[in-house]
Recover the amino acids of this structure.
């Protein structure tokens, strides 16, 4: 009887401590501890990831079917690269047109030239559960990485940095249900929001009913909201979901990035995401003074 | 006795932290249809069935904390859900016969559903929009099946570990 009671007491105490941990985490007090734990585990993660990659390469070399898969992936990558290049060219054409019109303005304002600075990072781990889509990379605050910075590959947008340790950082992928990005469709310039799904797919929502969308259309970041730079490739429309009774239409998007095989990525360190909450608070404080 | 308990606890920490590290680093290479086995959960279920509620709770706490520290989820979600799994195992433990592999195999699927379902419910409460039908079909169900297959490999190893740590006759 006493043993059972003690056990219940211990259990209650443990649950209370976990809830306290949750509250501290939500208030941001647990972030340094988490960063220390993750930093301490980085060498082990790097070794295990390297071992996994080597094993994976070895297995691929020995099996003929896997070689064909690699070839298919290569062709897919080439296709994606060409698509991204094409997107770049079309965007350049549009930009060229706009720049012609803005030539006088740019001549008188040379300080607005844009140069992206980026840090090359390597994936050393993913979220241990099947419910979240995070990737851990091998560079952190020491390399100038900060929370909110966008992460890309040669194929397009991967996500953004959500937590930073001394020598590691956590990246929330686009396909996570907590992720949302303001986007536009390249051809029709229709705007919307791309959200992740638990099954690792992407859905574009809040597209006005009047806008025209077709399978194959390319979806880019719009830059609205200030969380991501504009014109980063996200994917291609595969299916348009349009119902007359709905206010908005939606579309399924096939991402250009292969989120299952992330190895090397770039973090754009020159981009500073806009923190609206801080801006509003500052504006309110200025107004009060 | 105390020394044995300390060694047993140290081993549990090493095994569960190691399993979490394997899940974070090697899971992209062992994905089946987009999901990977929950090795930490399988270990907690297996050990809870072999050793009973008290040791099951210790393993659940260590495993849950280890997942919480390595995951991007708000702290505490996986510790709480893992404790819930250990409590359910504790309720079943002692009411069934022996510790053959049938019981863990039978329990793995419902306990995987419980673990991932409750964790997902907490995540929904914290603002993630989840389509439950998609979640069941593309994550919860396949992960449960994959965990059964993992249990088939892991339980014999846990049984050997148990015999090494606590020498006593067990039916297997």
């Amino acid at each position: 009887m006493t043993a059972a009671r003690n056990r219940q007491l211990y259990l209650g105490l443990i649950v209370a401590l976990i809830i306290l941990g949750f509250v501290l985490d939500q208030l941001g007090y647990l972030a340094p501890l988490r960063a220390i734990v993750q930093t301490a585990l980085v060498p082990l993660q790097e070794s295990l990831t390297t071992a996994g990659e080597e094993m994976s390469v070895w297995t691929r070399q020995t099996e003929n079917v896997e070689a064909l898969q690699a070839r298919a992936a290569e062709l897919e990558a080439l296709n994606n690269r060409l698509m991204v290049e094409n997107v770049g060219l079309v965007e350049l054409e549009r930009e060229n047109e706009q720049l012609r019109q803005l030539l006088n303005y740019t001549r008188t304002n040379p300080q607005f030239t844009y140069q992206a600075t980026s840090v090359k990072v390597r994936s050393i781990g993913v979220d241990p559960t099947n419910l979240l889509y995070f990737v851990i990379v091998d560079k952190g605050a020491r390399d100038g990485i900060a929370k909110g910075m966008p992460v890309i590959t040669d194929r397009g947008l991967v996500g953004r940095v959500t937590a930073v340790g001394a020598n590691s950082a956590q990246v929330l992928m686009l396909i996570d249900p907590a992720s949302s990005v303001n986007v536009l469709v390249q051809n029709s310039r229709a705007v919307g929001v791309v959200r992740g799904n638990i099954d690792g797919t992407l859905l574009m929502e809040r597209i006005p009913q009047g806008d025209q969308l077709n399978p194959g259309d390319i979806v880019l970041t719009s830059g609205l909201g200030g969380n991501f730079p504009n014109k980063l490739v996200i994917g291609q429309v595969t299916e348009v979901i349009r119902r007359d009774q709905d206010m908005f239409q939606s579309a399924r998007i096939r991402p250009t990035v292969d989120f299952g095989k992330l190895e090397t990525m770039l973090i754009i360190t020159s981009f500073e995401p806009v923190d609206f909450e801080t801006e509003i608070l500052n504006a309110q404080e200025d107004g009060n003074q | 006795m105390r020394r044995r308990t300390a060694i047993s606890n140290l081993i549990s920490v090493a095994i569960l932290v190691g399993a979490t590290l394997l899940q974070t680093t090697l899971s992209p290479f062992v994905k089946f249809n987009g999901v990977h086995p929950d090795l930490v959960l399988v270990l907690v279920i297996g050990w809870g069935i072999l050793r009973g509620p008290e040791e099951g709770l210790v393993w659940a706490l260590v495993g849950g904390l280890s997942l919480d520290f390595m995951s991007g989820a708000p702290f505490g979600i996986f510790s709480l859900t893992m404790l819930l799994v250990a409590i359910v195992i504790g309720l079943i433990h002692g009411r069934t016969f022996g510790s053959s592999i049938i019981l863990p195999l039978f329990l793995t699927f419902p306990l995987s559903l419980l673990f991932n379902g409750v964790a997902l419910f907490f995540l929904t409460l914290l603002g993630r929009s989840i389509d439950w039908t998609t979640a069941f079909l593309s994550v919860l169900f396949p992960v449960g099946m994959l965990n059964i297959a993992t249990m088939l490999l892991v339980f014999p190893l846990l049984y050997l570990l148990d015999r090494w740590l606590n020498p006593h006759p067990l039916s297997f």
